[in-house]
Structures are given as C-alpha cells and as structure tokens.
Amino acid sequence: MGGISVWQLLIIAVIVVLLFGTKKLRGLGSDLGGAVKGFKKAISDEDAKKTTELGDKTVNSVQAEKKQAEKEQH
Q: Which of 24, 39, 40, 72 could form a disulfide with 20 if both were Cys (CB 3.0 to 4.6 A apart)?
C-alpha cells in the first residue's frame, strides 16, 4: 500500500528509455561513472597528502626530541 511495485518501476524505466534513447543513457552513465571515479581519486589523494604530512610531522618531532635529549645530556 503506497509503495512502488516492480511493475511500476519497469514501466518507468521503459518510458525513460523511450524518451532519452539508449545512447544518451549510456553516455550519462559513463559520465556519472567518471565523476564518481574522479571524486574517489580526489579523496584518496587528499588522504595520502594528509598521511604524508602527518608522517613528516612525526619524523620532525622525533628528530626534535632526539636533539632535546642530547642537549639535556650535555
């Protein structure tokens, strides 16, 4: 009651295919897929950049701690 059945979805899909054609739908799908792929790549690049920056900060802080320890020993 009030839900969309499988038959109704099938009729909507047929109407969309008739209106737009398969070539446009295929092109739209590939464009959407490319956009999602680009978005995922941008997110992973940003994560890699943050990880690299964090690693650099960690290396720098370890080096600073070593220098501080050496100063305290002398």
A: 24
